[in-house]
Design a protein that fits this description.
7-stranded mixed beta sheet, 13 helices, 2 domains, alpha/beta, Aspartate Aminotransferase, domain 2
Amino acid sequence: MQFAKRLQSLSSNVFADMDRAKALARTSGKEIIDLSLGSSDLRAANCAIEAIELSLRDRGTHGYLLYHGTRDFRQTAASWYTQRYDIPVDPETEVLQLIGSQEGTAHLPLAILNPGDFALLLDPGYPSHSGGVYLAGGQIYTMPLLAQNQFLPVLEDIPTPILAQARMMVLSYPHNPTTAIAPFSFFKEAVAFCRQHELVLVHDFPYADFVFPNGEEANPQSLAPSILQADPNKEVSIELFTLSKPYNMGGFRIGYAIGNAELIKALRQIKAVVDFNQYRGILNGAIAALSSSQESVRETVATFQHRRNVFIQALAQIGWSVPTPKATMYIWAKLPEPWQSNSIEFCTKLVAETGVAVSPGAGFGKAGEGYVRFALVHEPEILQLAAAKIAVFLDNS
């Protein structure tokens, strides 16, 4: 049996690789503390659950949901965005419901790239960004994210011949896995750069809410800039949102895109041959969440800020000093010697010997080597236990 060559580029995935390593550890009797996947352990927003429960009893929600049936959701998403960022959005032409933002990043290259075209991607970056390019037959030029550059790409370093063949750039800030935040000045630079070189600018924005105040009362929802603030007329940009992180709805797979009307139309054309839309009841839950007071979002962000503080302190107590992230639900930690050249081996041995599962930096790209990513998806006591197990592992290494 023969398969398409494109599968060769999809043979490795950091989450699938760690899933196999966790399964092996379980079979040997290890109890797993899983810090490898950014899947929140918190309960979904109550208002969303209640709306979904009501929908389940309504058989009118049980059929296929076509595009025009998503109007109420699109109107709610547009209203939410305008209230937050003060930029008008047309729900009919500038909003599209997605089955999670990952679906958008995976499908957009099919609408933008011809075979052989380049996409400019962050390195390290989220795996679906590259996966979608490979499925579209595109080529990837990676923009290294280095600590000395605050984990921002240096756009001037992109070679002219690459730019001549490039059609899209993908950014994502606050950034997974490095936890970096991009200042508004960088977004303005990126929009100008994409205009100059006729690039589509895709901004994956799942951590819009996950910016932590610096020891003072502040509204974290106002601290992460939107790419459309730098491109208010939506000339080159499209931004992808999800309810997975702020509303703890990862398993419900609901997100949306806002941006340039032509890009929204093109992505809608791709979706039309790939899927129908999400179950209407889940859209009703999302409408309730987006329309709520947002107090549950603030509580979620505060929970992860507390976990961040606890885990940073626990790592420091075992002699592993890492910078305190200002955003996201992760810790991006430079590996101690002698592990800095093999993050995959570190993570594989760590879970096999201790049951603690973390993600190797190399799984997010070449520039991620030498790091690991911890997802703060357990209660503080479990995070402290994980740090204690890591200390024993390091002592025995």
